[in-house]
């Protein structure tokens, strides 16, 4: 698409394509990612992991490792001074496996040494005797009462039932399908890395860490270290992408343990292979869904059963499950529903947060169903979606009323109005064909297909969680300084926060203080929540400062502060002629205010799955055009057209980056990205075999942002991070179906699914 | 019997300077030596097998993955990292927007066109794009895509990166 | 523990005879992965990348060409080498990424001998000859005798792979490879087809569908009997399909995490059909 950058405005306030303040550092290599840290006398830490998905640990002998020159410490479960387990929702994951290992790659021991190669040799020297057990890898089997419990907390992590309206509602037409979603990896590029500095007395530690949520990490770390939280200080290390994979603890506790034990700074960083074992993945899921509709295509009732494979430990599975089942209907009206969802423990790798958080799985099913419904009723994919499109005021199957702006119809119509790409040119280069540089296809082997996907995504945390973000604004001598613990993971909050301050305060110069735990929590950089939550906190803090500034100026110039406002970079008297620049008005004074933004309260679901469990919603439509080599089953995504409900565009350049980036990840799930499991073993923990889209796989994206400001949102802007990756996956699969006539009930679609 | 680690000594020519490497282990990659021994962390490691391009540097004029170069075998080669681009391309240096640092035109365009998000792939991409435009000042869209097809970006979906390359090509054309 | 960086083949051979356990490293794109993933802890290394003799190619009086083991793939993608051996250029372009093609070489492909090595099906199709040299003798081995199995070859520990001689054929040739994305992808199945009109021969070699590269000699000779390879310009669809079917019969694919045996068998039949159709399109 053409560049969306607006004319450079005179000031980088809200709505302008302000540039990243960390841009220069990032393009010159000067930006310090957590893996770039270095300290005098530092040691390297490394992790010994289980080669088995399920085994009993008979013995661990660390002495041979300790004898290696250069090795300073070898630690196991018995060296954890505090709580032996951690977890975001349920602390059921051990810092080190002690009695059992429950997934391949589970940490068993850690070492500290003078060189990464010494670490490797030390790990190889540790002798662990395992009694290898038969792993439980099928969630359906794991749920049966006859199956052994692989964890004291049981194999069923959560079950939730939803019944809404009349479960016996009758209809003319039914369509149903069984859908499978593979295990996707977040595959951020900046691998897990941290540096821990022990306090001199050994009673505390400072951890520089790439994470999504400093305060949550701190709580879990402090408990495991048996230290008061104030003795554990976290500083945000440069984060090379996250996408959900940095919400759980990975190397945090280990790194701190080694620092405290050795009294030296410890650097830990995972390799790519280790990273595949070191963080949670997107839940693989199996979804049965049945739509009942009138013969003209109006949904009457939806039935569904969803099973999410949570892997060995809980992580965020209960929340992912709820997101999945409460989005069963998609962005469509539905009065009657019966849904059962299960999150199940197995000996597969733990699964948790990834961009889209449960909704990706549900959306693949409901959008596949909408196309079946369209076919059954003789409607086009667009018409069946328009006929059922949700509006503000409609009810979800949880009984919750959608109070958010809900421009579903607009999303669909505006996407539909985007011109289709040109047919493939006679002169098209082979690199544009499916198969690309492999020169597999000739022009006549290629068939083009078009498909649709539309989605609804909840924003922020659900089910009664008191979700909040904190920010402090300090204004002095015309310069605003902002402090928050918000994790910048690449999304651009460091660009947005100064834009907010400039808009509210009428200053241009904004300094960002270090993100660390020396201020209240900002919550997680996830759930499409930071623009709304931390943005709301920065906005609130700046407004409090502005109020005090008006009081100060009013007092000094004998004007009722209520008459003052900021216009560009001046404070003006709205009913008089007084005008002073903010810079002049703040010379010699310092005003500082802290603000906590809380979103509206939500509720738990009752036993029938009813309750106002979500805060707000965003919507998006995607239309995919693909070229398929039907005989070989290879796919090239040509174009993605999209119209997304964003509330308000605060930074056009950042916004398009979120849309295009999310689309590429959804494309990955559609046609190439999958962690392949074989009886609990990961078969492809590398970038040779876990394939991410390259520049030659990226489709042309044509995007429209629909701006209908969201009244609930502090800045009118909805979160925009997750929606782009949700319905693009079913849209691409639908396009492949239209080119091939195949049912394609699983993602990623593999070549053999198309051509055999 | 393990070999001791750290008995190699050699010198690398990096960004125009001879740099001594002391006490190295023979298996160390150029990426490791640049980052951990020579204080040049601009090249990034993200896959250790040449499948992501984050570690791209120039070696004797070729863009290569420094994770796949055994450092001790790079003796005698001219190595340029992202940190050396401004110095190596003085005519392309511009002053970045609102910041006084010197950056190259490619670096500048990545910032202004939105080609940077988390930034982890960025140094490798910057080196790859410099290399492309040195060899081919007016690449087609497909040539751009193919030339950076070894540089994985997980954040942007590449759209803004293509825009950045296009912007540099246009500016260079206008200036030439 | 040493790293030798010889400047000539004879220096390299001297280094090898004084360190018989030394590992030879050319572009590094295979060996460094082994080291980075902790599968190999090298002791002594002989780096061949600065040996100029290995980085050149020459035309021989008999019309064949000899490509030094250290010529990087990027040099095969374009220019005169592309004119002379188009299938090699097409294969070279599918190797990894531009960065890998700047470092990776045929010598490395031969040294590693992975069935998924992109250059190897071309060498098998054109009956290339591998040059090996030790301090005592030089010898030349047919590629068919050189590659013995998955990552196994006939190189003796005291030998260096110095070059490959490739006959320049008179006829269409091409390479094609299936991967699940449009660039930088390891082969799921690949095929090289080369026609030599004067000898009325067609050769097809398959990659990633067996423990070594597979020459489909039954299918080749069958086609030779059906079809005049020197005078025909167009192959009928049915014939091309049958050729593909027969090629697939000679493949020996397995199920692994990259694909299934069934898909690979299907894919090589399609690739063979398409290649022969490209050779005889109209």
Automatic annotation (TrEMBL), chain A:
Aldehyde oxidase/xanthine dehydrogenase a/b hammerhead domain: residues covered: 28-134
Family annotation (InterPro entries): Ald_Oxase/Xan_DH_a/b, Ald_Oxase/Xan_DH_a/b_sf, Ald_Oxase/xanthine_DH-like, AldOxase/xan_DH_MoCoBD1, AldOxase/xan_DH_MoCoBD2, AldOxase/xan_DH_Mopterin-bd_sf, Xanthine_dehydrogenase_dsu
Annotated Pfam families: Ald_Xan_dh_C, MoCoBD_1, MoCoBD_2
Alphabetized Gene3D superfamilies for the sequence: Aldehyde oxidase/xanthine dehydrogenase, a/b hammerhead, Aldehyde oxidase/xanthine dehydrogenase, molybdopterin binding domain
GO MF term list: iron ion binding; oxidoreductase activity
PANTHER family in the cross-refs: XANTHINE DEHYDROGENASE, XANTHINE DEHYDROGENASE SUBUNIT D-RELATED
Name of the protein in question: Unannotated protein
Species in which this protein is naturally found: freshwater metagenome
Automatic annotation (TrEMBL), chain B:
GO MF annotation: an example: oxidoreductase activity
Record SUPFAM superfamilies: 2Fe-2S ferredoxin-like, CO dehydrogenase ISP C-domain like
Ranges of residues in domain 2Fe-2S ferredoxin-type: 8-85
Keyword Oxidoreductase belongs to the record: yes
Family annotation (Pfam families): Fer2, Fer2_2
Organism: freshwater metagenome
Keywords tagged on the record: 2Fe-2S, Iron, Iron-sulfur, Metal-binding, Oxidoreductase
Protein name: Unannotated protein
InterPro entries: 2Fe-2S-bd, 2Fe-2S-bd_dom_sf, 2Fe-2S_ferredoxin-like_sf, 2Fe-2S_ferredoxin-type, 2Fe2S_fd_BS, Beta-grasp_dom_sf, Diverse_Oxidoreductases
From TrEMBL, chain C:
FAD-binding PCMH-type domain: residues covered: 1-171
InterPro entries referenced in this protein's UniProt entry, alphabetically: CO_DH_flav_C, CO_DH_flav_C_dom_sf, Diverse_Substr_Oxidored, FAD-bd_PCMH, FAD-bd_PCMH-like_sf, FAD-bd_PCMH_sub1, FAD-bd_PCMH_sub2, Mopterin_DH_FAD-bd
Gene Ontology MF terms: FAD binding; oxidoreductase activity
Keyword check for Zinc: no
Gene3D superfamilies the UniProt entry points to: 3.30.465.10, CO dehydrogenase flavoprotein, C-terminal domain, Uridine Diphospho-n-acetylenolpyruvylglucosamine Reductase, domain 2
Keywords on record: FAD, Flavoprotein, Oxidoreductase
Protein name: Unannotated protein
Organism encoding this protein: freshwater metagenome
């Amino acid at each position: 698409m053409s560049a969306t950058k607006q004319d450079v405005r005179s000031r980088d306030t809200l709505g302008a394509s302000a540039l990243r303040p960390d841009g220069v550092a990032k393009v010159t290599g000067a930006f310090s990612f957590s893996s770039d840290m270095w300290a005098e006398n530092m040691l390297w830490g490394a992790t010994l992991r289980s080669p088995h998905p399920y085994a009993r640990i008979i013995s661990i002998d660390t002495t041979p490792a300790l004898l290696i020159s250069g090795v300073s410490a070898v630690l196991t479960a018995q060296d954890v001074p505090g709580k032996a387990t951690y977890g975001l929702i349920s602390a059921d994951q051990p810092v080190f496996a002690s009695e059992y290992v429950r997934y391949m790659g589970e940490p068993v021991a850690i070492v500290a040494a003078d060189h990464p190669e010494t670490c490797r040799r030390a790990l190889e020297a540790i002798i662990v005797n395992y009694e290898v057990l038969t792993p439980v890898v099928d969630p359906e089997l794991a749920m049966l009462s006859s199956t052994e419990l692989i964890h004291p907390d049981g194999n069923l992590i959560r079950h939730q039932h939803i019944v809404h309206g009349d479960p016996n509602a009758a209809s003319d037409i039914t369509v149903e399908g069984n859908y499978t979603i593979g295990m996707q990896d977040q595959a951020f590029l900046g691998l897990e890395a941290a540096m821990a500095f022990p306090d001199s007395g050994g009673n505390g530690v400072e951890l520089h860490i790439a994470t999504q949520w400093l305060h949550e990490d701190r709580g879990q770390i402090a408990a495991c270290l048996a230290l008061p939280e104030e003795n554990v200080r976290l500083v945000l290390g440069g984060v090379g992408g996250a996408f959900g994979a940095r919400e759980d603890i990975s190397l945090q506790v280990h790194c701190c343990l080694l620092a405290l034990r050795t009294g030296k700074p410890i650097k830990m960083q995972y390799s790519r292979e280790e990273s595949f074992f070191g963080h949670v993945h997107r839940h693989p899921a199996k979804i049965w869904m049945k739509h009942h509709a009138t013969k003209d295509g109006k949904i009457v009732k939806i039935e569904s059963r969803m099973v999410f494979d949570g892997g060995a430990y809980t992580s965020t599975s209960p929340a992912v499950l709820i997101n999945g089942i409460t989005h069963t209907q998609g962005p469509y009206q539905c009065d009657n529903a019966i849904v059962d969802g299960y999150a199940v423990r197995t000996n597969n790798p733990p699964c948790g947060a990834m961009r889209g958080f449960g909704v990706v799985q549900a959306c693949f099913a409901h959008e596949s169903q909408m196309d079946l419904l369209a076919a059954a009723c003789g409607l086009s994919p667009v018409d069946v979606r328009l006929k059922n499109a949700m509006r503000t005021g409609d009810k979800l199957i949880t009984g919750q009323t959608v109070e958010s702006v809900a421009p579903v119809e607009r999303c669909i119509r505006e996407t539909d109005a985007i011109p289709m790409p040109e047919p493939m040119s006679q002169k098209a280069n082979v690199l544009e064909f499916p198969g690309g540089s492999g020169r597999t296809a000739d022009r006549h082997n290629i068939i083009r297909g078009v498909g649709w996907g539309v989605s609804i995504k909840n924003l922020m945390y659900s089910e009664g969680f008191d979700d909040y973000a904190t920010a402090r604004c300090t204004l002095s001598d015309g310069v605003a300084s902002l402090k928050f613990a918000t994790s910048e993971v690449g999304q651009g909050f460091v660009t947005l926060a100064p834009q907010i301050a400039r808009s509210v305060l009428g200053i241009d110069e904004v300094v960002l203080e270090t993100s660390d735990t020396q201020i209240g929590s900002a919550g997680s950089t996830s759930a499409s929540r930071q623009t709304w939550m931390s943005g709301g906190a920065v906005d609130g803090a700046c407004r409090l400062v502005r109020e005090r500034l008006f009081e100060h100026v009013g007092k000094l110039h004998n004007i009722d502060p209520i008459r003052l406002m900021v216009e560009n970079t001046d404070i003006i008297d709205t009913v008089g002629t007084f005008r002073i620049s903010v810079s002049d008005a703040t010379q010699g004074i310092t005003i500082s205010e802290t603000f906590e933004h809380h979103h509206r309260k939500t509720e738990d679901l009752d036993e029938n799955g009813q309750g106002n469990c979500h805060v707000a919603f965003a919507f998006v439509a995607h239309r995919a055009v693909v070229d398929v080599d039907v005989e070989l089953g290879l796919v090239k995504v040509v174009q993605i057209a999209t119209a997304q409900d964003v509330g308000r565009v605060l930074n056009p350049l950042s916004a398009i980056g979120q849309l295009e980036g999310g689309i590429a990840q959804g494309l990955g799930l559609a046609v190439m990205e999958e962690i392949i499991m074989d009886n609990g073993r990961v078969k492809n923990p590398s970038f040779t075999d876990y394939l991410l889209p390259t520049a030659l796989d990226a489709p042309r994206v044509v995007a429209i942002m629909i701006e209908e400001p969201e009244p609930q949102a502090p800045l009118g802007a909805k979160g925009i991070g997750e929606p782009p990756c949700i319905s693009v996956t079913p849209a691409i699969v639908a396009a492949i179906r239209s080119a091939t006539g195949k049912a394609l009930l699983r993602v990623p679609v593999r070549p053999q699914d198309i051509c055999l | 019997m393990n070999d001791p680690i750290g008995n190699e000594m050699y010198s690398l020519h990096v960004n125009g300077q001879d740099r001594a490497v002391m006490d190295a282990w023979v298996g160390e990659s150029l990426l490791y030596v640049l980052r951990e021994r020579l204080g040049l962390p601009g090249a990034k490691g993200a896959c250790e097998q040449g499948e992501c391009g984050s570690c791209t540097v120039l070696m004797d004029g070729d863009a290569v993955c420094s994770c796949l170069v055994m450092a001790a075998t790079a003796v005698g080669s001219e190595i340029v990292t992202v940190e050396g681009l401004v110095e190596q391309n003085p005519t392309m240096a511009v002053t970045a927007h609102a910041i006084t640092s010197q950056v190259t035109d490619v670096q500048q365009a990545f910032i202004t066109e939105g080609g940077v998000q988390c930034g982890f792939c960025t140094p490798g991409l910057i080196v790859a794009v410099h290399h492309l435009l040195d060899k081919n000042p007016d690449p087609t869209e497909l040539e751009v895509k193919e030339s950076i097809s070894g540089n994985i970006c997980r954040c942007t979906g590449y759209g803004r990166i293509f825009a950045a390359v296009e912007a540099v090509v246009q500016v260079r054309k206008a200036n030439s | 523990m040493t790293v030798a960086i010889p400047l000539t083949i004879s220096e390299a051979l001297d280094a090898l005879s004084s360190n018989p356990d030394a590992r030879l490293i050319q572009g590094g794109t295979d060996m460094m992965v082994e080291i980075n993933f902790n599968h190999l802890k090298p002791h002594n290394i002989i780096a061949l990348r600065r040996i100029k003799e290995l980085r050149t190619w020459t035309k021989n009086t008999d019309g064949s060409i000899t490509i030094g083991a250290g010529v990087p793939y990027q040099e095969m993608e374009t220019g005169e080498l592309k004119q002379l051996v188009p299938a090699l250029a097409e294969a070279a372009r599918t190797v990894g990424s531009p960065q890998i093609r700047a470092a990776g070489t045929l010598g490395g492909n031969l040294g590693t001998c992975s069935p998924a090595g992109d250059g190897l099906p071309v060498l098998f199709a054109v009956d290339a000859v591998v040059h090996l040299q030790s301090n005592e003798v030089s010898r030349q081995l047919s590629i068919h005798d050189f590659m013995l199995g998955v990552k196994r070859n006939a190189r003796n520990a005291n030998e260096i792979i110095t070059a490959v001689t490739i006959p320049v054929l008179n006829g269409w040739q091409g390479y094609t490879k299936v991967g699940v994305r449009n660039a930088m992808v390891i082969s799921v199945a690949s095929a090289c087809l080369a026609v030599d009109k004067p000898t009325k021969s067609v050769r097809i070699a398959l990659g990633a569908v067996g423990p070594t590269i597979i020459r489909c000699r039954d299918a080749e000779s069958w086609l030779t009997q059906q079809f005049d390879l020197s005078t025909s310009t167009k192959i009928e669809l049915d014939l091309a399909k049958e050729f593909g079917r027969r090629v697939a019969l000679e493949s020996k694919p397995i199920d692994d995490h990259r694909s299934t045996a069934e898909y690979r068998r299907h894919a090589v039949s399609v690739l063979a059909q398409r290649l022969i159709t490209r050779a005889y399109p109209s």
